[in-house]
Specification:
Blueprint (H helix, E strand, L loop, with lengths): L3 H14 L3 H19 L4 H25 L17 H26 L15 H15 L5 H7 L4 H14 L1 H20 L5 H20 L3
Helix pairs in contact: 1-8, 1-9, 2-3, 2-9, 3-4, 3-9, 4-5, 4-6, 4-7, 5-8, 6-7, 8-9
Length: 220
C-alpha cells in the first residue's frame, strides 16, 4: 500500500471529527483527567491506569464508528467497551501493557525515570528521553494498532486479534510508518502546548487509526 494512504487516513479522521468536535474533545479531556488523577498515586495508581486507560481510549474508536455510520459521537461511548466480551477487553489491555512496558524501559534507560513512580524523581525528564520514550511507544504500538478493532468490532479471539494486527502491519509497513510519524508529531505538539493540544491530538490519531483499519481491512 502506498505511503500516501497515511495522509488520506488523517483526512478521513478530520471528516469524522467534524461530526462531533465538542464530544470528541470532552472524551479526550476525560481520558486525560483520569490518567492524571491515577498517576498521582505512586505504583498502584499507575498500574491501575494501564488497565483502565486502554479501555477508555476505545471510547474514541466507538465514537468514530458512530460518526462513520451517520450517527453522533456520545460521551456514553467512553464505556461502550463494557458490552464487549472479557476476552476482547483483555486483548485491548494486553496491547496497552506491551506499549507501556516498552515506554517504561526506554524512560528508565534514557532518563533514569521510573514510570511507575514518576513523581518521585527530583529532576524532570529530559527532552531527549521524553521524545525517545514516546517514539518507542508509538513504534511498538504500530504492530498492535488493529487489536482493538479486531477484538471489539470483529469479535476476533485474543490470539487472532494480535495475529491479524501483526499481519496487517507487516503488509503495510510504509504507510503505517508515516502514520506513526504523524501521530508522534501531533503528540509532541500536544505536549508542547501544556497538554491542551492533546485534546485534539488524541481524537485525531484515534480517528486516523479507525480510517486506516477500514482501508487496510477493506471495511465498507
Amino acid at each position: 500500500m502506498p505511503t500516501a494512504h497515511a495522509t488520506a487516513w488523517y483526512a478521513e479522521a478530520m471528516r469524522l471529527w467534524k461530526r462531533g468536535p465538542v464530544v470528541f474533545t470532552l472524551l479526550a479531556l476525560i481520558i486525560l483527567a483520569v490518567n492524571l488523577l491515577l498517576n498521582l498515586l505512586p505504583v498502584a495508581g499507575t498500574a491501575v491506569a494501564q488497565l483502565v486507560l486502554p479501555l477508555l481510549e476505545c471510547g474514541l474508536l466507538y465514537a468514530c464508528l458512530a460518526a462513520d455510520r451517520g450517527g453522533r459521537p456520545r460521551l456514553s461511548h467512553l464505556f461502550a467497551f463494557v458490552a464487549a466480551p472479557w476476552r476482547a477487553q483483555a486483548a485491548v489491555v494486553a496491547a496497552g501493557l506491551l506499549i507501556f512496558a516498552v515506554q517504561a524501559l526506554v524512560a528508565q534507560t534514557l532518563g533514569g525515570i521510573n514510570l511507575l513512580t514518576p513523581a518521585d524523581t527530583g529532576d524532570p525528564i529530559s527532552g531527549t528521553a521524553l521524545v525517545g520514550t514516546y517514539a518507542a511507544g508509538i513504534a511498538v504500538s504500530l504492530p498492535v494498532t488493529y487489536v482493538p478493532f479486531a477484538a471489539l468490532f470483529d469479535g476476533a479471539g485474543f490470539r487472532t486479534a494480535f495475529a491479524q494486527s501483526a499481519e496487517a502491519f507487516a503488509r503495510n509497513l510504509r504507510p503505517l510508518a508515516v502514520f506513526g510519524a504523524l501521530s508522534l508529531a501531533l503528540l509532541l505538539v500536544g505536549l508542547a502546548t501544556s497538554g491542551l493540544g492533546l485534546l485534539l491530538a488524541l481524537p485525531w490519531s484515534a480517528a486516523a487509526s479507525y480510517a486506516s483499519w477500514k482501508d487496510v481491512f477493506g471495511v465498507a
